Structures are given as structure tokens and as C-alpha cells.
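ok so for the tutorial part 2 we go from a plain amino acid sequence to predicted C-alpha cells. step 1 is just haveing the sequence, like this:
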Amino acid sequence: MKQTLLKKFEEVFGSTEGAKVYFAPGRVNLIGEHTDYNGGHVFPCALTIGTYAVARLRKDDKLCLFSMNFETGGVGECTLSNIEEKNTGDWRNYPKGIVWAFGKKGFQVDKGLDILYYGNIPNGSGLSSSASIEVLTGYILKDMFGFAVTNQDLALIGQFSENQYNGVNCGIMDQFAIAMGKKASAIFLDTADLSYDYAPIDLDGAKIVILNTNKKRGLGDSKYNERRSECEAALAALQTKLDIKSLGELTEEEFEANKSLIGDDVKIKRAKHAVYENQRTIKAVKALQDKNLELFGKLMIASHDSLRDDYEVTGIELDTLVEEALKQDGVIGARMTGAGFGGCAVSIVKENCVDTFIENVGKVYQEKIGYAADFYVVEIGDGPMTL
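step 2 — the prediction. this is what the C-alpha cells look like for a chain of 387 residues:
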């Protein structure tokens, strides 16, 4: 891979002198969905698929960006002085946003860069291709300019960029999982205070299989921001009586005793998901520690049901994949993962059943939806690195 990237960089930018090769993973969230901006827990892991880059410093102030995934777009250029100018829907807004965010945080990028990107995360799949680009770009800036930032700082800068530059009101989970990834472990993260533990993942002969709906979606134009504002309104109503800073502070019992304060059936459902999903995530991590994979799977299924019925972010594509997955032999659990509205589901499947699982689910999905789903058997990998 490294030689292929360097060869393409030379083709696009003229030579490889001074160029370095980098990688940042994608991520999948095993459980804990739409809890990260509600002060709850999440349980994501970094993947061995992700985004690669070849980068080098320039002598001028030009930022020259090229993607092997969008070759027809050619090299996009901007100067550091006009970094705030965005092109709607352009992937380059993600790396540009990081350069902008570093400046806002007091880390001034004073030289231009040539950067070639290549991602083997499907775009719009919900495996965080955008956050992967953000963390990767931040890691490049840290390395090239010697900025004194930690990987956790890279996650926070990535979130700041996505919120303030790209206008998506995302939580911290995606960037954190990518920046802090650890091989063979998922991250049990409390988004309220960023305290975290690594939990080794022993699936006892089972595999993580990701199911991609191939329904494209973009977070900025989805109902993601709407769900977030519904939860904020529900929280504000609960705060008229309860001394809480987030929905993640509530147990199921506390929520049920006070939900009438919210006064709106839709907002009650949204808040219920946030509270119950947080508690499911805490229980799921304990189940893994107790080597109770069966309970972990049941909690995954309950998570999907809640995302479908209370949070209403699944849709026919994700529901079809999960419903069919759960009918197959060797399936321990399955649920949608990511923001929803398309994207991916994640399942845990016994290794000897994986091929049949993919064949059967794929056949039904094609018949019902009219186009094919894609399947990836994935491994858990490390965070960003220099190759």
C-alpha cells in the first residue's frame, strides 16, 4: 500500500522528496448510539480499515489536496489566508477545517502542504470516513509542525472543526475512537468527562461483520441536528426540577419518575432512548467482562429496537439488514451503528457461519431493497500512525 501511495503522490505532485505516509482508522460503535452528545457512555473501536495520506511541506502558503477516491476532482488548492472559504459538499472541507481549527486553538500552520488521501472506508457508510480524515490531518500537522498536542487533543480539535467549520453538531465519539484506538480493544468512554477504559474484546471464535446498506447519507443534511435539539429541549424541561447537566446522568427509574416534565410525546421518546441506551451500554461492557456474549448480543438487539422505535433513525434499509441478520444461524447480536438514516449495521457472528450469513442476508436485502448491500469482516486496530 505504501509504495502504491507514494507512486501516485509522485504522479500528482511531481516527486516524493520530503513526503511521509500516514494512516488513521475508521471506527465502528458496538453499542451506545446517540448517547455521546447526551453525556452518556459509548463503546466504539478503531478498525484496520481507514484513511491513508502522503504529505509534505511546501515553501509557500498553499494547501494542495488530492484524493484517490475522487480523482476526477483533481488537486484542490487554497491558501492558508483564505482557509475559511468552503465549497458546499466538498470532501476537502474536512482537512481544511482541521487546519482552520488548529489556528483557532493557537497552533498556527505557517506553511502550505501537499497531501494525497486514499480511504478504504466506504463514504457515507457510517464508519466515520470524515472523522478519520480529520484525525489523520491533525496527526499530520502534529508531526510536520511539531505541535505539542496529544491524541486526545486531536479528537477534540476534530470535533471542534466538525461542529464549527462543517456545521455538524456531532459528539466526541467518532474522533475519540479513531484518535485513541487500540488493537483488540474497544473504548468504554464516558462522554460527560472523557474518562475511559480499554476493554479487551474476546469474541470466542466469533467475528464482527459490518453490513453496509449502500444508502448514501450526509450528517449535515440528515435529521441528526434535529434529534440533538429534541434531546436538548427534553433536558431543559427535566432541569426545571432535577439538578442534572445531561440525560446521561439519569437511571431508567429516575427518567420514568420525571418524564412527564417533558410534556411532549416525541421528545419523551427521544430522551428515553438516550437514558436507556446509556444504561444498556454500561450493562453491555459488564457482560463482556463477565464473558457473557449472549447478554451482550441481547443488549445490541434492544439498542436497535430503541433506535427504530424511540429515536426513529433506522429506516427500511437498516431494519431489513438487522431483521434478516437475526434470523441467521450463529448470530449473537446485530444493530444499526452510527448516526442512522442509512449507513451500516454491525453484527457479531460465529466464525463458521459468516459465509452463509453474508449470502443469506445479502440475497434478501437485494430482493427487498432493489440493490446490493456490502459486507466487511473487520478486525479491531490501533489509532493514527506514521507508516
